[in-house]
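Hey, resending since the last one bounced:
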Amino acid sequence: MGKSFLFARSASAALAAALWAGSAAAQGSAPQAVQLPVLDLSEALREVAVQTGRSIIAPDELVRGRHAPALSGTYTAEQAVAILLEGSGLAFRLVDGALVISAPGDARRPASDAAEQAGITVTGTRIRGTAPVGSAVILIDRSAIERSGYVTTQDILQTLPQNFGGAPNEGTTAISLDPNTGKNTGTGSSLNLRGLGNASTLVLLNGDRPPLGGFAGVFSDLSLIPASAIERIEVIADGTSAIYGSDAVAGVVNVIPRLRFEGAETSVRLGTADGDSEELLASQIVGRGWDGGHAVVAYEFYRRSALAAAKRDHVTDDLRRFGGPDLRGGYASPGTILAGGQTFAIPEGQDGTGLSPAELVAGAVNRGDGWAMVDVLPMQRRQSVFAAVTQVLGAALRVYAQGLFSVRDFERRARTISDAPRTVPVTNPFYVDPLGTGQPVRVQYDFGADLGRERRVGTVRGYGLTAGLQADLGRWSVDVRSNVGHQSERSSILNRVNSARLALALLDPDPGRAYNLFGDGPSTNPATIDFVRGSTTSSNRGTVWSATVRADGPLVTVPGGEVRIAVGGEFRQEHYRDGPTVSDTVSLEPRVLPPIDLPGARRIRAAYAEVLIPLFGGGFTLPGLRRLDLSAAVRTERYSDFGTATNPRFGLNWEPFAGVRLRASYGTSFRAPGFDNLRQDPGTRLLFAFTIPDPASPTGRSNILVERGNDPRLRPETATTWSVGADLEPRILPGLRAEVTYFNIAYRDRITSPAANLFNFLVNRPTYAGIIEDNPSPETIASFYSSPFFVNPLGIAPDTIAAVIDARLQNLSVVRQSGLDADLRYAFRAFGGQAEVGASGTYIFNIDQALTPTAPVRDVVDILGNPVDLRIRGRALWSRGPWAASLFVNYLDSYTNLTNVTPQRVGSWTTLDAQLSYRLPERNGLLSGLRVALGATNLLDSDPPYAAYNLGLVITGYDPDNASPLGRVVSLQVTKAW
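The structure tokens again:
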């Protein structure tokens, strides 16, 4: 078997429409206006699928190098395909509503093989050959991937309007309001549909759960999936726990590999972010079919160099150039002396020898930008191998296996996490006494010039293996499969200060060995600098194992068609473990710290059933009831640590007449707490003092005490989701298609930490009243200050504390969200070729959130740290013969920043992506199948809108949740099909 193309509609929300017609073989297709020039046969078949809405499956080895005649008229899909195949020696047959192209000799192929190609299982349902009833499927196919201008899976999915970037991603690591970004130990990338949290979006690889990444498996790491091995990505932005179980509250993303690729394809891409960061991608895929079997192997290498913060003006602590405040910290080189409650700035331009107290600047502080010599995006280097094989055994049995292995290395210069005042004793030969007291002094000093910036380096390895056996028992199919996945992460922070060895070096009276904190760095003997250089190294790993048995097929025949059913059972085990940490920062010799004690293995047993009932359709119709389908599904799961959860789902598709389909869905979903959520060891606790905005304070700010950690009373999250939508294809205007969906989500007991809104606690006091204790007693304050878990980075005095806030991870009482998804497209002939214009977007009406049962409901949409109400991706596509061009417009609406006392409006942001490509015709000898694409993302190099993104210890001038600092990326990609 060779590579088979599933020709459907364009990449935005189209698969459901293409399979809509295919869901009932008896339905047939109504005549459509079809206009085609002379094209390659593969392109002509694709255009017929687009213009008629029918699924067409064409093995690549049959259509490669063939040409098709022009078409102009009104045809059914069958009529159009028959004309295109005239004289080719090829034929087609109808299988489950799809038109399958075949050669005369293909009659010898097992029937199960053709059924496998046509009986496609679409994300959102377990019943083959149908689309999920009641929900729209967002499709990103191979053509859309190639035209997007992006080459990594995470970047491709970040373009979805339904996605919110506030989640673990390489650009948000430790600089986001989302609490999980700090657990992104391997600088991976996740997806966050609807902004309900990355843990509420289920990611699948060809229907299987991959192992999770980050500490304790807090997210699915998309960065390990090579985009060159992807056939298509299907997204359901709707609750699907009745189909897939936990984590599918906001939706599911299924990445489907190129299992049917035939031949060979080599691709090389070079890209540059205006010379500030470069990327290289090289990939090779090889596939071969034989009688009853097929194998494919794909390899991809990807490397992108780091992006320095100095290359982007908006990545800085000093926001004065934007009209904002100077938020640089008090650590610099030269540093600042602290003595007698006063500050004394050390002058520049001297090496700390012979410095006198008279040269110090009393009452001043030398300030340093924490982004100096730091990377805002890390270097990423990845190698991935994907392989799949299938073999038919007899007429009704098929065995299959597939596997993915990826290894990714990363490196970035990071903001310093070890800043602290250093005590200089009087024995230090460079000691300066600004007050003449003869007492030790403290110095705030930036060691970056001495040691180099702290560097985070590490490696992530992941693999997934699936093997299964599929048997066709008449028209029923039974599938037994097992999957195992493993992901491990190891990372180090280099160039840290070893405080124990630094104390010795500061105490040393020998000028040749002592550490000098009183000059421009470096002013110390290099051997001494190396002596105080420290590091930490940590690791974690996770394993997922599952076994599944499922069956689907027709049950009975009713007037509207066949009632189809799917049933199955699953067992899954998840286990996440932390490794020992090697710390070389607080003792003279490295210390090995024991692993964090995570909960043991979690075991899940599940059973499900799904039924599709065609009430009207085919030859059984009534006025206003051209087609009516109902579906129902239920899934029961028993967790070894959280008991049993049962979730139903119902769907309806109603086609009153040709060109109009109405749909609705209703279901419940749930998500069990993650492994890190369940920890109760001392390492989860953090008590700290901080200063935050307070409009009720005369100074506009107040000092508070904050408790963070895990609430031991955590419960699973639950949700009720429903949606209604319409798909319109007016016959009076062929080529026009519109989809619109209203969604409503009622999310209860959502697990999150209110600490993400640290700077809003007192600005929006009524919202957080349930966790705020005003005017705490001296005993309460004393218990914080005496706790071994207490830190006081700003040196706040106990008698200035105004409130205590419980910001532990807990179940929020309610989150209610509603909005609209829409996709509009119009395909037409233009400039001698085929053109399409359209746009997809999401508009969120509200995200009503209440922290506690007694707290007022607050709408947080359009507030920094939460999704923006409107996001649109427009497109204009054109192709003619070997030429193709695309233009995308990305729009993000304006929103409000409340992390300061005075609210700030963050402006809207519009960027353009463009690509021009040329594919050499098949008859060009060695150059046959060569495609050259020149592209640019953020074509006009539009900077992110200014946002004073203030997390206290981390500041930027832009919002990393909603914008990328990368800027314009120009790329050249050459792809050769062999």
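Residues 4-280 form a domain with the Ferric Hydroxamate Uptake Protein; Chain A, domain 1 fold (CATH 2.170.130.10).

Sorry for the duplicate.
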